[in-house]
Amino acid sequence: QLQLVESGGGLVQPGGSLRLSCAASGFSFDTYAIGWFRQAPGEEREVVSCISTRGYNTHYADSVEGRFTISRDNTKNTVYLQMDSLKPEDTAVYYCAAATATVHSMCRNPNYSDYWGQGTQVTVSS
Questions:
Q1: Burial of 52 (0-12, 13-18, 19+ CB in 10 A)
Q2: Four-point Cα dihedral 81, 24, 106, 16, nearest 10
Q3: How many CA atoms lie within 13 A of 71 on its CB side?
């Protein structure tokens, strides 16, 4: 059964850090680009970051560039999102997704994603 399971969300103070994980099963993980997206209440889902099949290419939204780092371990079928210097505006439900599309296409349009996880809540508040 194909699954993407996010974990690592929670409540953190501004300036703090969190590390999200996306564990995959049921498909050929290393043939899919993986992306992180987020959706705040009342807002559309937006891209956060994407990584290519072997991790050589990455893309970041301008709002997180320099603060977030995406990585993947294909031996563990897992993608990570290290989030540092968190801001209240980073508060959202974070989703991971898998796509056979290129990193560029995936990060330009979430509709290119083939599979989605259920999401994990990240709340940045004092």
A1: middle
A2: -10
A3: 8
Task: Give start and end residues of each alpha helix (H) in the chain.
Answer: 103-108
Report angle CA 7, 12, 24 to the nearest 5 degrees. 10
What values do phi and psi take at 11, rounded to 5? -100, 130
Best CA proximity match to 120, nearest among 1, 9, 27: 9
Could you tell me the two tokens for 100? 């056979």
Q: What pLDDT, in 10s, does the model give residues 95-120?
A: 999 999 999 999 988 899 999 999 99
What is the C-alpha to C-alpha distance for residues 71 and 21, in angstroms, rounded to an integer?
10
CB 59 within 8 A of CB 50: yes
* Residue 2, helix vs strand vs coil: coil
Tell me the per-residue pLDDT of 70-93, one tens digit each, with 9 for 90 and over. Answer: 999 999 999 999 999 999 999 999
**Whole-angstrom Cα distance, residue 55 to residue 72?**
6
